[in-house]
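FORM 12-B: Structure-to-Sequence Request
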């Protein structure tokens, strides 16, 4: 119930007057190339501004993949033939 009450004050989806569109995005667009020396804005945001977050997400996905491989792999039975 508290979450539903908290979302009533949020701006509409895609509202150009929302804080993300009026404060954050213009700074990224105008300063990304100058501050990061990366010509692509998406790469600048993911690699430079959100680098640790992206590294954390990659680590979690890698760990989950390795856990799946370790849990789902088949164990081979030892088929050694003894020579007499």
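FORM 12-B RESPONSE
SEQUENCE OUT:
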């Amino acid at each position: 119930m508290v979450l539903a009450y908290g979302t009533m004050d949020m701006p509409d989806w895609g509202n150009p007057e929302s804080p993300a569109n009026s404060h954050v995005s213009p700074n990224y667009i105008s300063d990304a190339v100058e501050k990061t020396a990366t010509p692509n804005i998406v790469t600048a945001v993911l690699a430079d501004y959100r680098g640790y977050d992206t590294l954390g997400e990659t680590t979690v996905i890698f760990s989950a993949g390795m856990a799946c491989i370790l849990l789902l792999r088949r164990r081979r039975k030892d088929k050694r033939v003894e020579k007499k």
